[in-house]
Amino acid sequence: MTTIRLLAFGILAIVLNGCATLSETECASGNWYQVGYQDGKFGRDSDYVLNHESACIEYGVRLNRDQYEQGRQKGLEVYCTGHNGFQHGVKASQANQNCTVAFPEYLASYKDGLFSRHENLQVHLDELMREHEILRQAIRRIEDEKEKERLNLELDDIDEQINDTKSQISRVNYLLDMYR
């Protein structure tokens, strides 16, 4: 029983330690511009500074928000590129709000990525619909019940793919509408 408790406390310690965004050494170094730059390079919101502040307060260190924000803005220049915007659009993920206003190339490329995703999904949906119709016609002509059952299972799978693809198209349309 004590082994289980020790293991549980060990895991809890690792989880709680993982919550701190900065170590004592990083807090003490006071290189807030660099910390902000790194956060900007990852596209993090300005509120992310609160995580650093709470980590550093534990060590009695105050964060310089002006330096942090200057660094974060420089880091966002690295993150908010047209390439990243396009990649977010192609994946139909949410646009990074830190990039949509100050970095027009990011937003334009994001929209291009969404359009590309939409076109690809539409082509895929058309293919699925053709497969669906071919299977339905085959099921009508086949008399062997086992073969009909197999084809019906295949048709069910196609129908699931059609519904999933339509759902993805709806998500892309929703995202496109957000940025018109």
What string, H for helix and E for strand, traces the elements in order? Answer: HHHHHHHHH
Q: Between the first and last Cα atoms, what is the distance in angstroms?
A: 60 Å
Helix and strand composition category:
mainly alpha
Percent of residues in β-strands = under 5%
Task: Classify the helix fraction into a percent range.
Answer: over 70%
| Overall outline | elongated
Radius of gyration: 26 Å
Q: With helices defined by DSSP (H or I, 4 residues minimum), what is the helix count? A: 9
Q: Mean of residue pLDDT?
A: 90
Tally of distinct domains: 2
Largest sheet: none
Structure summary, number of beta strands: 0
Low-confidence stretches: 6-18
Protein name: Lipoprotein
Organism: Kangiella koreensis (strain DSM 16069 / JCM 12317 / KCTC 12182 / SW-125)
Coiled coil: 118-168
Signal peptide: 1-20
Structure in words:
The protein is an all-alpha fold. The chain is 79% helix and 0% strand. It has nine helices and no strands. Helix 3 (32-41) packs parallel to helix 5, helix 6 (82-90) packs parallel to helix 8 and helix 8 packs antiparallel against helix 9 (145-178). The relative contact order is 0.09.
Briefly characterize the structure.
This is Lipoprotein. The protein is mostly helical. It contains 9 helices and no strands.
What is this structure's SSE topology?
Blueprint: H1 2-19, H2 24-29, H3 32-41, H4 49-57, H5 65-79, H6 82-90, H7 97-100, H8 104-141, H9 145-178
Organism: Kangiella koreensis (strain DSM 16069 / JCM 12317 / KCTC 12182 / SW-125)
Signal peptide: 1-20
InterPro entries: DUF2799
